[in-house]
Design a protein that fits this description.
Order of helices and strands: HHEEEEEEEHHHHHHH
Low-confidence stretches: 1-12, 24-43
Mean pLDDT: 83
Oligomer: single chain
Shape: globular
Helix content: 55-70%
Distance between the termini: 34 Å
Strand content: 5-15%
Largest sheet: 3 strands, antiparallel
Number of strands: 7
Number of helices: 9
Number of domains: 2
Radius of gyration: 24 Å
Length: about 350
């Protein structure tokens, strides 16, 4: 029944995804390029590395386009001053030069006291802002889907429910259930949250002026650590026996194999963290590098060619956004499935 349901609505899903992709594409071409042009037209030699780092790294300022900025709240704590909160605009004068404020200095978005003492930075940076935006979008969508499910129970889904229900069924039947096994229902809420958080974050990062949320290693690390914790707290006696005792292995090999198994417990989430971080960040770097070529060569021909290539890569990035969400969820399910699997020997 679920297979027929997915096939029925798959064409609708594809059409909607393509429309969203085209919107992302044209927003990117027409809004990112003017920003790059402005960065290279202020009398300074254009520095592509500085421009790329500026666009992919976290910041206390949300730059929507060149000259249009939102200064985000700075929340810092130090033993000397305690907890303080103020706007990041205080670190800049009228000419946008960096200045100190109330004993604090900010250098490359790193805040310290003027004395050099470090502070605990709890600021709402650009990545944190988009973390809230991503979470808010998920709440709005899935609360609406839940209402639609209750309203249309026993009938064909309608509206936004008709788009997301086949995807939810796909994640359940094709990713979570085959990899975790009979106990999958216990972990399904986490897996669905994980999939859609990464997917929405990846797509949100394709918008012009958006934060590189899932390309931030701190974000991918937290997601990987959550999978690591759930995996090891869910592990049954067979899982721990396999990792710590290596049953069935000759005694002479156990001193070699057991450390390898223990190291493997940590390398699995580490690979999850690095894979997502590298895939998303690399895509952004490639797109920005190609757009920068027009200003490096100062040629309309090069710019036109770069725009065509970027157009193609943007479509690929939409596909990569979905694939990375699928891969992260699949491997998380696989690791949890290995931890809860019963010994069949």
């Amino acid at each position: 029944m679920s297979t027929v349901f997915i096939m029925k609505y798959s064409s609708v899903c594809v059409n909607k995804i393509l429309k969203i992709g085209i919107l992302f594409l044209f927003l990117g071409v027409f809004l990112i390029q003017p920003s790059l042009a402005a960065e290279g037209s202020e009398g300074e030699k254009f520095n592509p590395a500085e421009m790329i780092n500026h666009h992919i790294r976290d910041s206390h300022i949300w730059e929507i386009t060149h000259g249009v900025e939102v200064h985000l709240p700075v929340i810092v704590y130090s033993k000397e001053k305690g907890l303080e909160m103020f706007s990041s605009s205080n670190f800049f004068d009228d000419e946008h030069n960096s200045v100190s404020y109330n004993g604090y200095v900010m250098d490359h978005d790193h805040i310290t006291l003027e004395s050099g003492e470090s502070v605990l930075d709890f600021s709402i940076t650009k990545n944190v802002l988009f973390l809230f935006i991503n979470s808010g979008i998920m709440l709005l969508i899935f609360l609406s889907v839940a209402r639609g499910y209750r309203k249309n129970e026993g009938r064909a889904p309608r509206g936004i429910q008709s788009f997301f229900e086949p995807i939810i069924i796909f994640v359940r039947d094709e990713i979570v259930k085959p990899n975790i096994g009979p106990k999958y229902e216990k972990y399904l809420p986490y897996m669905l949250t994980l999939f859609f958080f990464i997917w929405f974050g990846n797509l949100l990062g394709l918008f012009p002026a958006a934060a590189n949320l899932t390309g931030n290693i701190a974000v991918t690390m937290v997601l990987a650590v959550l999978t690591f914790i759930i995996t090891n707290f869910s592990g049954n006696k067979n899982y721990w026996k396999h990792n710590l005792m290596a049953p069935g292995v000759p005694l002479a090999l156990k001193p070699i194999l057991i450390p390898v198994e223990i190291i493997g417990m940590f390398t699995k989430p580490f690979s999850l963290m690095i894979r997502l971080f590298v895939a998303i960040t690399a895509g952004h770097i490639v797109i920005l590098s190609l757009l920068a070529m027009a200003f490096i060569f100062q040629s309309y021909i090069v710019g036109f060619g770069a725009a065509i290539v970027v157009t193609v890569i943007n479509f690929i990035e939409i596909l990569v956004a979905s694939i990375q969400a699928y891969v992260f969820t699949m491997f998380s399910s696989l690791y949890i499935g290995m931890a809860v699997a019963e010994d069949h020997h």
